[in-house]
Write a structure and sequence with these properties.
Layout: H1 7-15, H2 17-20, H3 29-39, H4 52-60, H5 63-78, H6 81-116, E1 119-124, E2 127-132, E3 141-145, E4 153-165, H7 167-170, E5 176-177, H8 191-194, E6 198-199, E7 204-216, H9 222-226, H10 239-269, H11 273-287, H12 291-308, E8 312-314, H13 317-323, E9 328-332, E10 343-349, E11 352-355, H14 365-376, H15 385-397, E12 405-410, E13 418-424, E14 430-436, H16 438-445, H17 449-464, E15 467-477, E16 492-500, H18 505-516, E17 520-524, H19 529-539, E18 547-549, H20 550-555, H21 558-565, E19 570-572, H22 578-588, E20 593-597, H23 603-608, E21 611-615, H24 621-626, E22 629-631, H25 636-676, H26 685-702, H27 727-754, H28 757-779, H29 786-789, H30 795-813, H31 815-820, H32 830-853
Length: about 850
């Protein structure tokens, strides 16, 4: 009755949409490449990415660059051209570094944007291939399924039960049914007529499947004509960005006030306006912490890049920031915790069970019927793992001819979990094959309660063994007109098929790692409770107080559900839309929730969750768009790796911010305190620029490259509202900074009194540089002492430290350059003061670590 070697293409050519696309040749690769080159990519008219000159302009607009330029202008006015040229060289060097850094960040973000763009299934040279949506060209043949985002305006040429949500264009929430245009050319120009056959870029497929020919792309589409909101939408600031903005504004206010006071002091008390302007500008440069926003931008962008190397695409920087705060990780089972490679383990007909081996090449005759009807009820070229397993078994054990024709298909729906397909056999008789959830098939067969109980008992037993169970039924039909509902057939129950999906070996270890890190893991699945329980045991998942089903969730009030989710870790037979209720309940309990999903109906839950995690392989475009993270390999272990990386990114941001606060305090002190004691200015603009050339790469490169802290996954998640500078952290950093200030100011004031001004500047500045380098070492870890961190590789740290020392040696070795910095001749005994400052800083820094631990 059925042979498997030749029948698929013959039937699919006429009746199965997935295989039907092979009858379309589509464009050749050369034609597509030519059109892409001629007309450009399929992109909506949004703001272009920043080019080199835009980045340069933005860098020049930074306050610090303006201040440096103003300083060089003042030196030119004073006739001190050598100092002015040094200043110009300094700020040009700063600009070059900033431009290179910004350009790298822009390229990273552009690459991530390209990865996260919607994809399209097109026919090229007769073969279906998946490409980025931006590569679709006019004339392409695209294939669309439920959950896909339409990537261009296209004319539908084939359709099966096809509907599209056009609310993004029309505002109407009701999906629009689409027909296929079978004639040559295009439909009439009448909008009312055309919209029945056209689908538009940006709209969402809600039901069925279709083949369409691309007519317009990019700015020519209906979406492009309207003008996308992407032009005016600005990225929402993260909690860290908001906090950093406040800090920078606070420092800027202080800089403005103190600089004005200094200027007035010189003008009124000393009648020296020029010196007042120079001192005020120097002080402003020393106080402004322009590195704070740089640290966030670089760390989050590079954090997203590092996470992408763990097979996780971060579509939003908020996800990178929130990863370290995750307290609950909700994961679906199939494909994430398991391998999503279904194999048929058992067949059950009547009271007889047959266990299937992986190498079985034949079946007893009594069991062949269930496989045959299961194949007939499945698409010819399936994506679903269960249907693939059915086809694989049929290919192994069946070898029969077939000349049947597919007449009608009744699709699976959320409300009724069964699908039926009507065939006409060689004798013109209609045969109906159906498969689906056992409850649905029992309902279709109208079985007596005793028989239904017997079947469900067997289902429960198979589920307890970790199998996913589907039922198969058949029917004959004699009438000409086919019913609109599959309930109108007289089905006969055939049997049950038990399928197993082995767990991912790495998932068990990742779940254990979550528990160590204080992260609760919740499994949400559409499978039976017994199956879920079996898989949970294999994974070592904490069972919680009980197992809740989707039916249980529907019966609970909002308050009751909140109480239940506090102790339940397994949810079975859950519909996608019920995930939203679970996320809301968990969030109401104060949890930081990461939620996985892949379907259209998962999108609301993904969007509401603190961290929505979409599947990159089997996920729909709309699920990916609603999420903050995309799993490129659909692997649970990748989520845990991303959480680990998220904790590292946050830790390193905190280290960089603390370092910035510490090293800015002595710079400010050196700029202000001597003035109020009637002493000459201690730090010149050139000194501060030199220090910035150490501070900038230290905070944005060295600390970003720092390895994770020991036991990073052995501590509970951080509070998402935790501030970078909480009371304890701020106190610790301020104490360290004030002690460093005390050392530097003391050396300078002692030097002015007992040495020459030039020597005082040389020793105090060199001590300040040594203190700066010491805090790079100290700040690398708050859990390890400086002697341990010396042996932890970080090339950037050593390059910065060696480079700073070498530059200082060069400056002191060349009298002309040393003079520009206001330094005297270096003497060996100066080194005693510098090393004392370094050792004192190390002792203070390491002592505060010990005190904090205690």
């Amino acid at each position: 009755m059925l042979y498997f070697n030749k029948w698929i293409k013959k039937l699919a050519k006429f009746f199965c949409m997935k295989a039907e696309v092979f009858s379309y040749q589509g464009l050749s690769s050369r034609q597509a490449a030519d059109r892409l080159l001629k007309y450009g990519p399929n992109e909506l008219p949004v703001k272009d990415s920043r080019g080199f000159f835009w980045i340069l302009l933005e860098v020049i607009k930074e306050p610090m660059i303006f201040l440096l330029m103003a300083c060089s202008g003042v030196y030119f006015v004073l006739g001190d051209r050598a100092e002015a040229i040094l200043m110009i060289g300094c700020f040009l060097f700063v600009i070059i570094i900033e431009v290179i850094q910004e350009n790298k960040t822009e390229k990273t973000l552009k690459a991530l944007k390209s990865l996260s763009s919607p994809r399209a299934l097109v026919i090229r040279g007769g073969q279906p291939i998946k490409i980025a949506g931006r590569e679709v060209v006019v004339g392409d043949i695209i294939v669309l399924y439920e959950g896909d985002r339409v990537t261009a305006d296209a004319l539908v040429v084939e359709a099966t039960n096809f509907s599209v949500d056009e609310s993004i264009l029309t505002g109407e929430s009701v999906a629009v049914d689409k027909k296929h245009w079978s004639s040559a050319g295009e439909p009439p120009e009448s909008r009312k007529n055309r919209q029945d056959y056209y689908i538009y870029s940006g709209t969402l497929v809600t039901k069925g499947r279709a083949v369409a020919r691309v007519m317009k792309i990019g700015g020519e589409t209906e979406m492009g004509k309207i003008g996308l909101s992407l032009k005016i939408i600005k990225p929402e600031k993260t909690f860290l960005q908001a906090e950093t903005t406040k800090i920078v504004k606070g420092f800027a206010l202080v800089a403005g006030v103190v600089s004005s006071i200094v200027l007035l002091y010189f003008f009124l008390a000393k009648q020296d306006l020029i010196q007042g302007i120079l001192s005020g500008l120097t002080l402003a440069i020393s106080i402004l912490p322009e590195e704070f926003p740089v640290v966030l931008t670089v760390f989050l962008a590079l954090g997203a890049w590092r996470i992408s190397r763990k097979q996780v695409l971060a579509r939003r920087v908020t996800a990178v920031e929130m990863l370290g705060a995750t307290t609950v990780l909700c994961s679906d089972k199939t494909g994430t915790l398991t391998q999503n490679k279904m194999t048929i383990e058992e067949l059950w007909i009547g009271d007889k069970i047959l266990t299937i081996g992986a190498k079985d090449k034949s079946l007893p005759k009594s069991y062949q019927q269930i496989v045959e009807y299961a194949v007939l009820a499945s698409p010819a070229d399936p994506f679903d793992p269960m249907e693939k397993a059915i086809h694989l078994l049929a290919k192994q054990v069946l070898n029969k001819d077939n000349s049947w024709s597919l007449i009608k298909e009744y699709s699976l729906s959320d409300s009724f979990l069964a699908m039926s397909r009507v065939w006409r056999d060689s004798n013109k008789k209609l045969i109906v094959a159906t498969k689906g959830a056992p409850e649905a098939i029992i309902d279709l067969c109208h079985l007596p309660s005793s028989e239904a109980k017997n079947i469900l008992a067997k289902v429960q037993l198979m589920a307890t063994d970790g199998m996913r169970v589907i039922a198969v039924a058949k029917a004959n039909y004699l009438k000409i007109d086919l019913p609109t509902n599959q309930h109108n057939y007289d089905f006969e129950f055939v049997g049950l098929i038990g399928l197993a999906d082995p767990i991912r070996p790495e998932a068990k270890q990742s779940i254990a790692e979550c528990y160590t890190a204080g992260i609760r893991v919740i499994m949400i699945t559409g499978d039976y409770p017994a199956t879920a329980k079996h898989i949970a045991k294999e994974l070592g998942l904490d069972m919680g107080s009980t197992i809740l089903t989707g039916a249980d969730i529907e019966k609970l009030s909002v308050v009751e559900l909140r109480k239940k989710v506090a102790s339940v870790n397994i949810f079975a037979r859950v519909a996608p839309e019920q995930k939203l209720k679970l996320v809301q309940a968990l969030k109401a309990n104060g949890q930081v929730v990461a939620m996985t999903g892949d379907g259209v109906n998962d999108a609301p839950a993904l969007k509401v969750a603190h961290i929505g995690v979409a599947m990159g392989g089997r996920g729909t475009d709309v699920a990916r768009e609603a999420s903050g993270l995309v799993l490129l390999d659909d692997n649970f272990a990748s989520i845990v790796a991303a959480i680990r990386m998220g904790r590292r990114v946050y830790d390193n941001i905190k280290k960089a911010m603390n370092y910035l606060l510490i090293v800015h305090l002595p710079i400010i002190s050196m700029s202000v305190i001597p003035l109020f004691f009637g002493m000459p200015i201690a730090l010149l603009p050139a000194h501060i620029v030199f220090l910035e050339l150490v501070i900038d790469p230290a905070c944005s490169v060295a600390f970003e490259m720092e390895r994770e802290e020991a036991g990073i996954m052995n501590r509970p998640p951080r509070n998402p509202k935790e501030k970078i500078f909480d009371r304890r952290t701020a106190t610790k950093s301020i104490i360290r900074g004030l002690l460093a200030s005390l050392v530097c100011v003391f050396i300078y004031m002692w030097g002015v009194k007992h040495w020459s001004l030039e020597e005082a500047r040389l020793v105090s500045f060199s001590s300040l540089l040594a203190i700066n380098l010491a805090y790079i070492f100290i700040g690398r870890s708050e859990t390890r002492n400086i002697f341990k961190t010396l042996f932890i590789p970080n090339l950037a740290v050593w390059l910065i430290i060696i480079g700073a020392i070498l530059v200082q040696v060069v400056i002191l070795s060349l009298p002309s350059v040393s003079h520009l910095f206001g330094f005297g001749f270096f003497k060996i005994w100066h080194l005693n003061w510098i090393l004392t400052a370094f050792v004192f800083t190390v002792i203070i820094g390491e002592s505060t670590k010990i005190l904090i631990k205690k």
